[in-house]
């Protein structure tokens, strides 16, 4: 989708359908540390999260995670493996969503955040920030 208004309208249509919304999240790792993004928009404004987003109609989850990394971080990634599927109806405070989580290896390294993030940082798994949004701490724990 080309702009934020189209994404908002698409999400509203999905919510109205009363079906879970399919999402993807990625753990971008440089080997020892993982990348988190501080959210600049609600929900979880100011919290650290894994980059990700909604799967668009007609798109595979693999295509979606690569697109989301380009849109949110400005980087290309290689999918290393599937970590898991997260379906708790309360994982997102806005609506019921199901997230597919991948371990990703960055192919390019020049990160440029879009409007959704205010900063990014690579964290050691042993020194994660206290405020992590959604169920992303669980996703990280499941990897390690």
Describe the structure.
There is one protein chain. The chain is α+β, with helices and mostly antiparallel strands and 144 residues long. It has a single domain (20-143), classed as Alpha-Beta Complex (Nucleoside Triphosphate Pyrophosphohydrolase). It has 3 helices and 7 strands. The strands form 2 sheets. A 4-stranded mixed beta sheet has the order 4-1-6-5, sandwiched between helices. A hairpin with an 8-residue loop joins β2 (33-39) and β3 (48-49). The longest helix has 14 residues, at 4-17. The chain is globular, with a radius of gyration of 14 Å.
* Strand arrangement in the largest pleated sheet: 4-1-6-5
> Which overall shape is indicated by the principal axes computed on the Cα atoms?
globular
* CATH homologous superfamily descriptor: Nucleoside Triphosphate Pyrophosphohydrolase
Q: From the 3D coordinates, which CATH architecture would you assign?
A: Alpha-Beta Complex
Number of domains: 1
The CATH class turns out to be Alpha Beta
Largest sheet: 4 strands, mixed
Instruction: Specify Rg, calculated over alpha carbons.
Output: 14 Å
CATH fold name: Nucleoside Triphosphate Pyrophosphohydrolase
Instruction: Please give the alpha-carbon distance between the first and last residues.
Output: 34 Å
- Structural class category: alpha+beta
- What integer is the average pLDDT? 93
